[in-house]
């Protein structure tokens, strides 16, 4: 018996050249990375500047401080004007949370009335509400101040919280109206046959289906209220009632020299709750949009 030996030579296959799609992917990755760096750089600079002493502001234009220090955080934690920093945080939290609750509840109720209830003057009222979006806030702020001043509500949180419970945010009302109008009326009619009224239909059917609009309204309301400056500046006179945006001004107005280190540090600390709120609720917003629609 004869055996034949098979000799195999190990040869490496030639490497595949990068295709055109691969180069496009690399280019897009580099572009997106550059855009991300540009967007995040101000936040990184703000965080790094919290460790700079006052002497470096105006001299050190770089990102890394020459002589890092924690004195700015100590100054901020002590507060300003005899008011501790936690009081400013508490005031901003009260205003922001109250604004979120009031805006979401009142806007949802108003949107349900516009989208599901037929009554005389519906078109005129809805057009008037949309028209308020074109009205500058500075036009109504003086009459509002006169009314609240006569009622004795100046230097309280009432002028800043009460309007939120009266569906004054036309943008959010319009957003929810569009969501509700896209929902079929079959479930409303079925619930009405079973004896459900408007209140039951609203809480049991409409509210769960417009959750993306509710979360979107909550996110923007919280951010806008937390960063709001002009209304608190007009209505609040006592430092113990100041929210964070007004308190930040004290670091530059209390003396002839500005405490830039404390101002930057307080700004960064005030930014943290907004970032956390957006990160947490963004997940619910994305999930709500991804699962938008009717489930059988």
What do these coordinates show?
The protein is an all-alpha fold. It has two domains: 24-69, no CATH class; 75-290, Orthogonal Bundle (MetI-like fold), CATH 1.10.3720. The chain is built from 13 helices and no strands. Helix 8 runs antiparallel to helix 9 and helix 12 (244-253) packs antiparallel against helix 13 (260-290). The protein is flat and about 75 Å long. It starts with 19 loop residues before the first helix and ends in a 6-residue tail after the last helix. The model is unreliable at 1-8 and 291-296 (pLDDT under 50).
Strand content: under 5%
CATH class of the largest domain: Mainly Alpha
Q: Would you tell me which CATH topology of the largest domain applies?
A: MetI-like fold
> How helix-rich are the residues, as a percent range?
55-70%
Label this structure with key terms:
2 domains, disordered N terminus, flat, disordered C terminus, mainly alpha, 296 residues, MetI-like fold, single chain
Condensed summary:
The protein has 13 helices and no strands. The chain has two domains: 24-69, no CATH class; 75-290, MetI-like fold, CATH 1.10.3720.
Describe the secondary structure blueprint for this structure:
Layout: H1 20-49, H2 71-78, H3 85-116, H4 122-131, H5 137-150, H6 158-161, H7 170-181, H8 186-193, H9 198-209, H10 211-226, H11 230-235, H12 244-253, H13 260-290
């Amino acid at each position: 018996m004869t055996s034949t030996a098979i000799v195999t030579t190990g040869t490496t296959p030639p490497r595949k050249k990068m295709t055109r799609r691969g180069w496009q992917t690399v280019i897009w990755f580099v572009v997106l990375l550059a855009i991300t760096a540009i967007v995040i750089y101000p936040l990184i600079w703000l965080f790094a500047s919290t460790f700079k002493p006052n002497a470096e502001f105006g001299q050190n234009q770089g990102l890394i401080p020459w002589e890092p220090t924690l004195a700015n955080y100590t100054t901020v934690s002590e507060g300003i004007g005899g008011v501790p920093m936690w009081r400013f945080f508490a005031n901003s939290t009260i205003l922001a949370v109250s604004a979120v609750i009031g805006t979401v509840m009142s806007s949802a109720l108003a949107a349900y009335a516009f989208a599901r209830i037929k009554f005389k003057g519906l078109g005129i009222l809805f057009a008037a509400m949309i028209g308020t979006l074109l009205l500058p806030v500075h036009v109504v702020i003086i009459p509002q101040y006169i009314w609240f001043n006569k009622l004795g509500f100046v230097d309280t949180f009432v002028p800043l919280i009460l309007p939120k419970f009266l569906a004054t945010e036309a943008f959010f009302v319009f957003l929810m109206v569009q969501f509700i109008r896209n929902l079929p009326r079959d479930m409303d009619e079925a619930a009405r046959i079973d004896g459900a009224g408007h209140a039951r239909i609203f809480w049991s059917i409409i509210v769960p289906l417009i959750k993306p609009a509710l979360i979107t309204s909550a996110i923007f309301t919280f951010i806008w209220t937390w960063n709001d400056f002009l209304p608190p500046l007009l209505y609040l006179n006592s430092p113990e009632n100041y929210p964070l945006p007004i308190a930040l001004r004290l670091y530059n107005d209390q003396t002839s020299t500005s405490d830039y280190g404390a101002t930057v540090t307080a700004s960064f600390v005030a930014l943290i709750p907004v970032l956390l709120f957006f990160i947490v609720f963004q997940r619910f917003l994305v999930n709500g949009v991804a699962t938008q629609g009717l489930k059988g």
